[in-house]
Design a protein that fits this description.
Layout lengths: L3 H26 L10 H11 L2 E5 L4 H12 L5 E4 L6 H12 L6 E4 L2 E4 L1 H9 L2 H7 L2
Parallel strand pairs: 1-2
Antiparallel strand pairs: 1-3, 3-4
Length: about 140
């Protein structure tokens, strides 16, 4: 015959086992995080549409430096993604290729609109398109 202590210990063990089983089932059947939230594609879309000005750049690129200087002269502060300083920079460039047909840098976006590279930015400044886009908030 079991003593009261043995009975309580056995009961606690079974209860612990039941809790462990429930936790295991919850973990197995819990919804997984959506992979897209960490995908390069989601990152690119988030950067483009969450910032007034976004530049996908490489820190050593002279064209990227020229684009950054233009915004600096306009007293605008772009959100800059330095692809060469990221582990997933090549994946992001592939997303830019898929979405916009270019993987070169810089790739510049203003209020969600793709401007293009540094030469395209200079043209947009000269013809007033950039100022219009910056004013369209």
């Amino acid at each position: 015959m079991k003593t009261t202590t043995e009975y309580q210990s056995n009961k606690r063990f079974k209860f612990g086992l039941l809790i462990f089983g429930i936790m295991l089932l919850v973990m197995i059947h819990a919804p997984k995080k959506v992979a897209a939230s960490k995908s390069p594609s989601a990152f690119v879309q988030n950067v483009i549409y969450s910032n007034k000005i976004a530049i996908f750049s490489k820190s050593y690129c002279p064209y990227c430096r020229r684009a950054k200087r233009i915004f600096s002269e306009l007293k605008e502060q772009p959100y800059i993604v330095e692809l060469d300083l990221r582990d997933d920079g090549h994946k992001i460039q592939n997303v830019l290729l898929d979405l916009f047909g270019r993987r070169t840098v810089p790739q510049i976006f203003v209020n969600g609109k793709h401007i293009g590279g540094a030469d395209d930015l200079e043209v947009a400044v000269r013809n007033g398109v950039l100022q219009d886009l910056l004013g369209a908030n």
